């Protein structure tokens, strides 16, 4: 009698990888989830209902063939499962760690909707790819033939790296320009190690370097090298800079020392994780140790900041958010992790101003309530009059989201088309801008979004660039 491999969701309950105890994980920057063992990964994969119309796949930006690699995992065909998972995803081990699966694949799992608890897709994806690296299943990138065409990519984040991977496999010469001293963008400097340990990112960058991708680091386009110079060096250019300009608070006292931007704070913390000497950390400017910390914001970046402050030894960490818990834009899973680690969430509250003379001493907090819904149907926060109070603070971190920099002005390319929001105007199918041979992908087109969308955009843009290069070669040959 054949062994039933799948559809076990009725008899097997949902299990996620074990979390390290909060008291222990709050003392370091290691990832908080333990790894699935082979038996447990196979068990959880076997819960998949093998839908005829898989909603998990339909709600994955990369259209990953999730049911099939879950079935292969349940059958113990792990190398095949990995190869199928990476066929549509350049960085499955990264997505398995940081994708908000609760809002994407797992949140749309049919057995979740039927009350049986979702298949733990992200944990299985992470397990498969980590196993692939350990066992040497991750093959080096070896183009079948080298091509003379070259592509310049501005930005070494997930979109740029994904595009480089696709292009290099086709033999195209690729150079990536980035302002930081390490490649990876927000994967390297914006996401803390407890969500994404840095060797996981560095091994992919090393794979690209070994394949011949050239990295020009510490290169601030428009200052160290002009955009026109980059265009002159390459047959096509991809802009994948992301969005780095922090949204600011307009309130009295906002310029006081001790009020810092989230990305500055996270970048310094991540540099320390590499063993770098960072003056702003050593002198206490961007170090939460022994301080009363207030983080303003409710997205995933705010969650990264509060959990980083806990690990740095803050005496207290509070998160102010103007709506309630149910209306937070950040992952509920991350909120739960933060609460377990000792973060105090102050819902329905917003900063009105800041107190202090030589440095910040407190946040003037105004209490809020949810009023009538806006055009999107989301209730708008309203100020409760005469309910203000002051929250003591030695370090205030602003985590209010990101906006695009004024690239046409910074790069001296006023003809580069942008939208009224400042994002680059590019075709959402081809990723072509209004400049010939120039493409754009990721957050610089979408606005601040998810890593998985940047990967998709980078892969799509690379395919369009390959078509453009082929057309250009055909015209030149005539």
TrEMBL record:
Pfam families membership: Fer4_20, Pyr_redox_2
Cited Gene3D superfamilies: Alpha-helical ferredoxin (1.10.1060.10), FAD/NAD(P)-binding domain (3.50.50.60), NAD(P)-binding Rossmann-like Domain (3.40.50.720)
Residue span, Dihydroprymidine dehydrogenase domain: 25-136
UniProt-recorded Gene Ontology molecular function terms: 4 iron, 4 sulfur cluster binding; metal ion binding; oxidoreductase activity
Organism domain of life: Bacteria
Domain FAD/NAD(P)-binding: 151-458
Signal peptide: none
Xref: InterPro entries: DPD_II, FAD/NAD-bd_sf, FAD/NAD-binding_dom, GltD-like, Helical_ferredxn
Keyword annotations: 4Fe-4S, Iron, Iron-sulfur, Metal-binding, Oxidoreductase
NCBIfam families named in the record: gltD_gamma_fam
UniProt-recorded name of the protein: FAD-dependent oxidoreductase
Organism: Stagnihabitans tardus
